[in-house]
Amino acid sequence: MTEQAPSSPTESVRAFSASPVQLLGHRNAVPGLLREINELVIYEAIRSDGPISRADLARTTGRSKPTVSLAVRSLVDAGLINEVGIQTGRPGRSGVLFSNRGDGGSAIGVDIGGRYLRAACCDLDGNVTARIDRALAADSSLVDQVTALITAVITKHADDTGQNTRPDAVAIGSPGVVDPITGTLSMVGVLHELVGIDLGRVLSDRLDTVVIVENDVNLATLGEQAIGAAHEVANVAVISVGTGLGSGLILHGELHRGARGAAGEIDFIPFRELSADTGQIDPSTSGLLDHAQRIGRNRSSGLAEVVDTRTLFDLAAAGDVDARDVIDDAARWIAYYAASIVAVVDVSRVVLAGGIGSHPLLLEPVATHLAALLPHPPEVVQSQLGDSAVLCGALAVGRAASVEAIFSHQRNSREEARAR
Predict the structure, then answer these.
(1) If we measure between CA atoms, which residue out of 117, 101, 104, 124 comes closest to residue 153?
(2) Residues 71 and 58: beta-carbon distance below 8 Å
(3) Which of 15, 87, 238, 315 could form a disulfide with 248 if both were Cys (CB 3.0 to 4.6 A apart)?
(4) Range with lowest mean pLDDT among 95-109, 263-277, 320-334, 360-374
């Protein structure tokens, strides 16, 4: 297997700004939950506004001074924050300033693609400390390859930072649908080995840490929300067109997965079943190339010999009329898929992502076709993260899960101490 050079977008991945209460929202009430929520709120305030004093934390979070003092002491004990100085320049008693410790934990994000595996490690500030990309090997188990890649990233992180600790959480983006009850994968495309297995449980047992598995387009959407083209947009659809076709939805600021975890599987919209005269094309890689070659044969042009999408887009950029027609056909069908989403949930922005979808030549024609289909068309923009969108989302989710895992460990330690 060969290692690939890292793509630049993940070099500046910033921390995921998930609400502390959202981090805990999926759990049942437990003793000390209010204390833990307070600690999370105060931790996030320190992370976003620090260095900051206890008095300012009380003002910004609305918590009482005793509550803030108790939470700060717990956060210091957990290694999540530390004292960084004394507040000066104000009347009255000087306050101790506290700041987040990025090295208080770490997380790993993984992108399982159709041809490549990408993995990176980040600290609790979201700073990338290690990254390795590898081509998929046909002669080795995919689960073994993912395990080996994560292990290699852990080693690289330790070598580069001197922090020889396992990650607090791992987040993995995979093609397909993750069953919300069983955790098993389905509809995984060419990665048949993953069908029917609970990848999170398998890898958690191997790595002895928290492992979260999420649909890859959902993670790309969270990546765009964290630091990309969907940042600070409450209702947005990310449409990813590459080797496959899918979408992710942010509604009211939160990822929408649907009742069975299958929200966004737009490839199952039955356009091709509606009429034999629709001229429907699949805008993902194989469908787009088939359409280009068919146009080339019908018009006796060089498109008949095109075997990769890069060549197709290069021809279109150079002004080839037939190639531009193919690109416009793809844009029209991407707009149909987008319109099917927008007509139902009325998002304000559509982000075009994926190896094909994010190409600049598609932006204007998709927006034009979409405007012709809807009375109130959304803004259409390109992905800002390119082929690193899934990995950025995985790191964002992994960082949030790492913080929660550290708090969970603290809670368990307190309960054990009380039981003794």
Answers:
(1) 117
(2) no
(3) 238
(4) 263-277
Distance from the Cα of residue 167 to its chain's centroid: 18
What is residue 90's DSSP assignment?
A: S
Residue 238, token pair as written in the block: 């990310």
Residue type, 88: T
Residues 115, 119, 125: CA angle, nearest 5 degrees: 150
Report CA-CA distances (Å) from 301 to 258, 281, 321. 45, 19, 10
Pairing of strands 236-241, 349-353: parallel
pLDDT at 165 (0 to 100): 77
Question: What's the CA gap between 204 and 27, in Å, rounded?
Answer: 19
Supply 417's token pair.
Answer: 């101490």
Q: CB–CB of 212/198 below 8 Å? A: no
Closest C-alpha to 239, from 370, 351, 381, 394: 351
Cα–chain center distance at 54: 33
In this prediction, residues 300-323 reach a mean pLDDT of 94
Residue 119 bridge partners (DSSP)? 110, 132
Task: Report d(CA 292, CA 329) in Å as an integer.
Answer: 10
CB atoms within 10 A of CB 234: 13
Distances in whole angstroms, Cα of residue 174 to Cα of each of 66, 117, 215, 244, 254: 45, 10, 5, 12, 20
From CA 416, how far away is CA 412, in angstroms rounded? 6
User: In the numeric block, which tokens belong to residue 317?
Assistant: 């950029």
User: pTM value?
Assistant: 0.84
**Amino acid letter, 167:** P
Interatomic CA distance for residues 260 and 53, integer angstroms: 45
Q: What CA–CA distances, in Å, run from 105 to 40, 130, 166, 251, 403?
A: 15, 14, 9, 30, 8
